């Protein structure tokens, strides 16, 4: 009632975004109104374009604008290693390291029994269908929390009979972290994974 | 007057992401009952709370009392129950127990006896060779401690005394046995064998520390397991989400 209908609608739509409360939405709306029309048009066009062109790769499940995605069609990558991650943002995080040269499989979640998310809600069937004689190693790169660990344990049980090398990302003390605040499991893993310097 | 900062011991039942880097914890505490608390920054890898805010972890905590949610200020790990976390079946049992705890225990309703029983059961789950039997024991005794003790001594239809060792049908909506004549007029009950009824009676008085010496026929064990799970689901008034996952893992073990 304090704002004209177009402004009120803009604030309502902005406040639907995660982490944006009514005050922030109001501030963003005033900011946008203060911008040139072409700047606002560019933002609107990029939103529509991303929504229209981005979808999930039919092979790995990563977000892409081409099908299959550029990682799945890149012949220079090692096709015998699949790194299993929970979400597309994990693929981006691993790609930023420039260390991993294999392929990915995005599960789109992790097993969370308390939220009613079971193995059948993840892209596990698609992972199994990708496994053939050329695949030598599966890297389980799910998050090191209960949901991620449960998913990794479930996948290990499922994949073990297939005679593949199954590996899990190393766990330990994060750079800049405090040893005294690390939990027992992390410390045990860090000790197991120690290396000569 | 309520103190704004309190110190308590607790077991983390549930963790939900909140905001950019925070977690909302559901904690079964020794002195405050089940509470919900925010752990600020607990999803950041370098946070001092990151390792202490995972499910099943037993912590010593300093908590600020808030208007709606409390605020976890400090947490020191007492036990992480690492064997539970590293075994799929034990994780599934532990998750189901946590769901039972926050579904059946009211918020801010302290019950030290229940807390200690939950803790002792988690310690046992961390080391037992037979987590299935332990879970049946836990489910039955935990619900009994909270007032949901199955009525096994008299018929919950007509009130007639039920003989020791007698069979009957277990009516999950009433939480007790029906005698043979009431069973005929009520088709919704699940028939329990005399062995299963005896097993239930025994578990209700058995000592947790001596559970490993208990030997039971598989059929009776299955009857009691299914009966108590249906009873729990019926009494909670809604489906227990973690039960489907537990069943699927049990089926593959």
Structure description:
The complex is a heterodimer of chains A (197) and B (253). By secondary structure, chain A is of the alpha/beta class. Chain A folds into two domains: 5-53, Orthogonal Bundle (Helicase, Ruva Protein, domain 3), CATH 1.10.8.420; 74-192, Dna Topoisomerase Vi A Subunit, Chain: A, domain 2 (3-Layer(aba) Sandwich), CATH 3.40.1360.10. Chain A is built from eight helices and six strands. Chain A has helices at residues 5-14, 22-33, 37-53, 70-73, 88-97, 124-130, 146-159, 184-192, and strands at residues 55-56, 63-64, 81-85, 103-106, 137-140, 165-168. In chain A, strands 4-3-5-6 form a four-stranded parallel β-sheet. Chain A starts with a helix and ends in a 5-residue tail after the last helix. With 253 residues, chain B is of the alpha+beta class. Chain B has two domains: 5-80, OB fold (Dihydrolipoamide Acetyltransferase, E2P); 83-154 and 156-252, de novo design (two linked rop proteins) (Up-down Bundle). Chain B has eight helices and eight strands; from the N terminus they run βββββααααββαβααα. In chain B, strands 1-2-3-5-4 form a five-stranded mixed β-barrel. In chain B, a hairpin with a 3-residue loop joins strand 1 and strand 2. In chain B, helix 4 runs parallel beside helix 7 (218-236) and helix 6 (194-203) packs across helix 7. The longest helix of chain B is centred in the C-terminal third of the chain and has 19 residues, at 218-236. The radius of gyration of chain B is 20 Å and the shape is elongated. Chain B starts with a strand and ends with a helix. The interface between A and B is medium-sized, with 26 and 35 residues.
Return the CATH architecture of the largest domain in chain A: 3-Layer(aba) Sandwich
What fraction strand of chain B?
A: 15-25%
| Secondary-structure content class of chain B | alpha+beta
Low-pLDDT runs of 5+ residues of chain A are none
Tell me, briefly, the overall form of chain B: elongated
| Helical content band of chain B | 25-40%
């Amino acid at each position: 009632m304090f704002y004209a209908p177009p402004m009120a609608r803009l604030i309502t739509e902005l406040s639907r975004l995660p982490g944006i409360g009514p005050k922030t939405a109001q501030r963003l709306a005033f900011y946008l109104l203060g911008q040139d029309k072409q700047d606002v048009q560019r933002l609107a066009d990029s939103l529509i374009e991303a929504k229209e062109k981005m979808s999930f790769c039919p092979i790995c499940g990563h977000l892409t604008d081409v099908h299959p995605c550029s990682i799945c069609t890149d012949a220079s990558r090692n096709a015998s290693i699949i790194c299993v991650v929970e979400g597309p943002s994990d693929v981006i995080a691993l790609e930023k390291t420039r260390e991993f040269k294999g392929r990915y499989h995005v599960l789109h979640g992790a097993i969370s029994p308390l939220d009613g998310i079971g193995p059948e809600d993840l892209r596990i069937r698609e992972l199994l269908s990708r496994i053939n004689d050329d695949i030598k190693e599966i890297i389980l790169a799910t998050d090191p929390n209960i949901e991620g660990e449960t998913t990794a344990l479930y996948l290990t049980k499922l994949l073990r009979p297939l005679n593949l090398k199954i590996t899990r990302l190393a766990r330990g003390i994060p750079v800049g972290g405090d040893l005294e605040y690390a939990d027992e499991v992390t410390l045990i893993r860090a000790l197991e994974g120690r290396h000569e310097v | 007057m309520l103190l704004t900062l309190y110190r308590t011991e607790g077991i983390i039942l549930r963790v939900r992401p909140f905001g950019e880097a925070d977690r909302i914890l559901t904690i079964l505490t020794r002195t405050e009952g089940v509470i919900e608390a925010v752990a600020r920054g607990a999803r950041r890898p370098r946070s001092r709370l990151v390792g202490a805010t995972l499910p099943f972890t037993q912590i010593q905590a300093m908590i600020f009392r808030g208007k709606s949610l409390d605020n976890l200020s400090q947490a020191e790990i007492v036990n992480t129950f690492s064997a539970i976390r590293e075994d799929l079946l034990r994780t599934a049992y532990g998750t189901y127990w946590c769901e039972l705890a926050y579904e059946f225990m009211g918020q801010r309703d302290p019950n030290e006896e229940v807390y200690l029983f939950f803790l002792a059961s988690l310690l046992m789950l961390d080391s037992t060779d037979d987590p299935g039997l332990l879970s049946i024991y836990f489910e039955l005794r935990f619900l009994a401690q909270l007032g949901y003790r199955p009525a096994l001594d008299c018929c919950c239809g007509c009130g007639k005394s039920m003989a020791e060792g007698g069979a009957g049908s277990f009516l999950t909506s009433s939480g007790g046995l029906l005698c043979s004549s009431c069973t005929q007029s009520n088709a919704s009950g699940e028939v329990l064998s005399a062995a299963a009824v005896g097993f239930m009676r025994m578990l209700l008085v058995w000592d947790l520390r001596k559970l490993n010496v208990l030997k039971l026929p598989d059929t009776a064990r299955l009857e009691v397991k299914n009966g108590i799970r249906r009873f729990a689901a019926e009494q909670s008034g809604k489906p227990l989400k973690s039960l489907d996952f537990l069943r699927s893992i049990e089926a593959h073990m």
